[in-house]
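Just wondering, does anyone understand these tokens?
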Amino acid sequence: MLSPRPAQQEMDAYYAAMDYGMASLAESMALDLGHYPDSVQDARRIIAQLLVYAEGKRFMDIGAGIGFFSREAVQQGFSVTALEPNPHSAAGFEEQVGFAPLQEVFNAQIAGLYNDTQDVVLLSQVLEHVCDVESMIDGLFRVLVKGGVAAIAVPHFGSLLSRMQGRHDMFISPPEHVNYFSIQGLNALFQRHGFECIAVHTASKVPREKIQKKYPSVLGETAWRGAYALLKLSEWFDRGMIINAYYRKK
């Protein structure tokens, strides 16, 4: 957890600013292709899980970005409500998905408007950015129907790579990341807000370009293949880079 913590209003303004993120869908897509697996593959995997876990098809995508998950959800028959406060990302979302997201930050007011209406809420790479996580989870509980599912993806600070990097972990990047989650901590957070854990997996989404900038003389093609094989192996021991967790409202 970051200390001192910025005010939530500062964070909301930061993410809604025109100079945050990529200026176009093409730039965002190019950046995403610098990761493996990319967001198309991530979306297919997570939405496939939600088809199994969710009892209905009303889907809220919070912090929807340029819409990879919403697009896959729509293709799989979900009725999607998406929230994305950044104007660049919102424009990219509309271009990719075919409708405009609500250009809003999820808060108590939004939760009130959508009280007890959603079968699924998704926060992919969002919860690490939120100053008041307790209020956020309360809001998720409110918008979900009984038995509804919260799907969460966050950086894993018990991963093999995180342990290797220590204090130099690439995901330690204030003011963007203010929360740092282990599997145990994430489970405890949701359990005390009335959720039960359905499943937790870890995945290794490698930002190759970002790592290569940090270690330009180290990682050739053979080294990359070996490094990625090691990261994939770490998933068998719940030491992958990203936590993917699914929680059901009791």
